[in-house]
UniProtKB/TrEMBL annotation:
Family: Belongs to the Nudix hydrolase family.
The protein's name in its UniProt record: ADP-ribose pyrophosphatase YjhB (NUDIX family)
Pfam families for the chain: NUDIX
Record keywords: Hydrolase
Organism: Nocardioides panaciterrulae
Residue ranges of the TM segments: none
Location of the Nudix hydrolase domain: 5-148, 152-292
UniProt GO MF annotations: hydrolase activity
Length: 299
């Protein structure tokens, strides 16, 4: 038997996670007669940047507009005797694998490319992939083994605003993590922005009211992994600077910023917090407890 013709192929792919699911593409029957799922992506065209290639391939295979990170991992697979395009070859595949993400409000995936190598695209359970319930190409398991969520630390400023027996709260929209839960008004501190300036800006955007910021009340933090508003899978560490604040007596809070992570603002009865109508994040309780402790210490 003579030496088989050598073929080397470079492809770009993405690991796209959303909570406990992963976006995968099922290979078409022209590629394999068996059910087999793989990462969305494909071969680079001559002269094409790998990042451009993976974004193009994700759209062709899933119909979704994706973004990918700045770094990637490279996997090599050498199959000395592989069947390709009606003949046997010595195949060598180089796979450049990025971390990717799609918007949280993206539509359901669908194959756009006609008569290509993808028959179906879907969000599938990571657990089913890992335990073999979903048959996948080896590259999927390699990439999941090496995947680490993007690490992000965010400093934010929040206001504890009280009026008699009520506290001013904002509700997290479907675009944010913990959608439907209530939290203190406030948000991220932009680069170069002071926390107090950030809080004044956020109060205007989220509540439509000016505020007078008082003393720093508490420094609270939370650490979890999940899907960010951008759609990216993140290892998220939030540091919350909580200030006491007041708003004008005649203020009528209303959400000003549209399509953000806040969809409602309201005065909530403090004794009802944590109930069915007022599920609240830990920072709310922490702020109220810190205020109570400060008042006890001042006596």
């Amino acid at each position: 038997m003579g030496t088989l013709p050598k073929r080397q192929r470079v492809g770009a792919y993405a690991v796209i996670l959303r909570d406990d699911r992963i976006l995968l593409s099922r290979l078409a029957p022209v590629v394999t007669a068996e059910e087999l799922w793989t990462l969305p992506g494909g071969g680079l065209d001559h002269g094409e940047d790998p990042r451009d290639a993976v974004i193009r391939e994700i759209h062709e295979e899933t119909g979704l507009r994706a973004e990918v990170g700045e770094t990637a991992r490279v996997y090599s697979a050498h199959v000395p005797s592989a069947w390709r395009d009606g003949r046997r070859i010595d195949a060598h595949a180089l796979r450049i694998v990025y971390d990717g993400w799609v918007p949280v409000d993206a539509p359901e995936p669908r194959v756009v490319e006609v008569d290509g190598s993808t028959a179906e695209a879907a969000w599938l359970s990571v657990r089913d992939v890992l335990d073999g319930t979903v048959p996948v190409a080896p590259m999927v398991l390699e990439a999941l083994r090496d995947h680490r969520p993007f690490r992000k630390q965010r400093v934010a400023a929040y206001a504890l605003v009280l009026h008699e027996d009520e506290v001013l709260l904002t509700r997290i929209s479907p675009r944010g993590h913990h959608a439907g839960w209530w939290t203190l008004p406030g948000g991220g501190v932009d680069h170069g922005e002071s926390p107090r300036e950030a809080l004044e800006r956020e109060m205007e955007e989220e509540c439509g009211v000016p505020c007078t910021i008082g003393a720093l009340l508490d420094v609270h933090d939370v650490h979890f992994s999940g899907t960010a508003p951008s759609g990216r899978h993140e290892d998220f560490h939030a540091v919350h600077l909580v200030f006491e604040a007041t708003v004008p007596e005649d203020a009528e809070p209303r959400v000003v910023e549209l399509d953000g992570t806040t969809d409602a603002v309201a005065w909530a009865p403090i004794d009802a917090l944590g109930g069915e109508d007022w599920p609240v994040l830990d920072v709310v309780r922490a702020a109220l407890d810190a205020r109570a402790a400060r008042r006890r210490g001042a006596r």
